[in-house]
DNA sequence: TAATGATCATCT
DNA sequence: AGATGATCATTA
């Protein structure tokens, strides 16, 4: 096992990326934050993306806000996943923004959701809320591609949700829709608005939304990967 | 402003 | 407890 490097270059191969990811398992975030030379917050109330940014740094992902996979050369998206002591996800997982307009002609095959989920490096982190960030522990990583059953479930939800968006129901869709994929607010706050067209074609100001994976979906994909089957 | 990284806070 | 709706930091 290698020792984590503070600021590695982007990995040149999938094998190198996985070797790095495996080398982080077992460390707590206090140790890793120190290795990376980052400040370690006492809580994540104001730094909700801190765990994700830390893992990006240690794995050599491109920092910043580019609309690209975290490892473009490898086609791999990095996602940290907070889990409880049993490995059960504690939160849903943000996937992609849902544009308020322009859905006509968009298909699942070319969708950002499918592209983002084509190949994901999941880094589960024991992150129960009672644990301070420094005490949270990195678990065994999982390189995942949707199997046919999973992709079909994602596709079905995506098509149902996008149909509603295309029909002008952006502002009416709640998080209750979708078995594995849902739409939820995704904005700095409730005053942020974007323009959408309603069912009558009128321009209306709506709160931005994003696609999220339900926790039971990520729970199942972890279970399938790590169980005996 | 819009994209990245997500978790928080509250209600049921 | 679990899920929904709301929110926070940073960067280009």
UniProtKB/TrEMBL annotation:
GO terms for biological process: DNA modification; mismatch repair. GO terms for molecular function: DNA binding; endonuclease activity; hydrolase activity. One of its GO terms (cellular component) is cytoplasm. Pfam families: MutH. Residues 59-157 form the DNA mismatch repair MutH/Type II restriction enzyme Sau3AI domain. Keywords: Cytoplasm, DNA damage, DNA repair, Endonuclease, Hydrolase, Nuclease. It is found in: Cytoplasm. SUPFAM superfamilies: Restriction endonuclease-like. The keyword Hydrolase applies. Sequence-specific endonuclease that cleaves unmethylated GATC sequences. It is involved in DNA mismatch repair. Belongs to the MutH family. This is DNA mismatch repair protein MutH. It comes from Gallaecimonas pentaromativorans.
């Amino acid at each position: 096992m290698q020792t984590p490097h503070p600021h590695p270059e982007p990995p040149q191969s999938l094998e190198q990326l996985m070797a790095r990811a495996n080398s982080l398992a077992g460390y707590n975030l206090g140790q890793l934050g120190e290795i990376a030379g980052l400040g370690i917050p006492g809580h994540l109330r104001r730094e909700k993306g801190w765990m994700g940014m830390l893992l990006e740094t240690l794995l050599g992902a491109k920092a910043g806000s580019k609309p690209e996979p975290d490892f473009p050369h490898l086609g791999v998206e990095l996602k940290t996943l907070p889990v409880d002591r049993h490995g059960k996800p504690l939160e849903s997982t943000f996937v992609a923004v849902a544009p308020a307009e322009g859905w006509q002609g968009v298909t699942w095959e070319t969708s950002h959701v499918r592209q983002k989920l084509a190949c994901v490096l999941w880094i589960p982190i024991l992150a129960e809320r009672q644990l301070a960030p420094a005490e949270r522990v990195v678990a065994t990583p999982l390189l995942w591609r949707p199997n046919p059953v999973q992709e079909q479930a994602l596709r079905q939800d995506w098509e149902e949700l996008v149909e509603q968006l295309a029909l002008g129901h952006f502002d009416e869709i709640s998080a209750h829709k979708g078995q594995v994929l849902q739409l939820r607010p995704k904005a700095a706050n409730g005053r942020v608005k974007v323009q959408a067209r309603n069912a009558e074609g009128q321009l209306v100001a709506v709160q931005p939304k994003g696609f999220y994976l339900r926790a039971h979906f990520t729970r199942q994909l972890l279970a399938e990967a790590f169980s005996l089957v």
